[in-house]
Amino acid sequence: MAQKFYLTKQGLEKLKKEYQALKNLRFSKINGEIPKILHSEDVNPEYLSFREDLSFLETRMEELKNVLKNVELIKPLPRGRKKAVDLGAKVTLDIDGQVDEFEIVGTLEANPALGRISNESPVGRALLGHTVGDEIIFSSPIKIVYKIRKIK
User: Fold this and answer.
1) What is the pLDDT of residues 94-104, one digit of tens each?
2) Which of 4, 57, 60, 89 has the fewest CB atoms within 10 Å of its CB?
């Protein structure tokens, strides 16, 4: 079974644009001037660089094609389900006396510095399914208590 990639609508659009840009770049590279294979009796370094660039482009395009083929869009939660933490939820937490807000997203869009944590990260996984008022005790090197204040 293929791995599912969870993305927001904005994340999906960003990946589609990247894929299209890479497609256009690949097309221009192939239809542009290709360096000669041999430079005297040695392999031309420009040609090797060209092949390496093309290989990188094609690898990234295949990765994106796989993601786009197996994407599952994170949809806004129905009103009744907003009581529990799920993908796409913004969760306000009390972390040992400090208030912080996180959005639960798929791994491809996770960026803890921007408050976006993955549903597969230890904290994200621990929060899933919990409701307002729940306390989650998380023990990594130190014990941290997360108390859910609000879910939107």
Assistant:
1) 887 888 888 99
2) 4
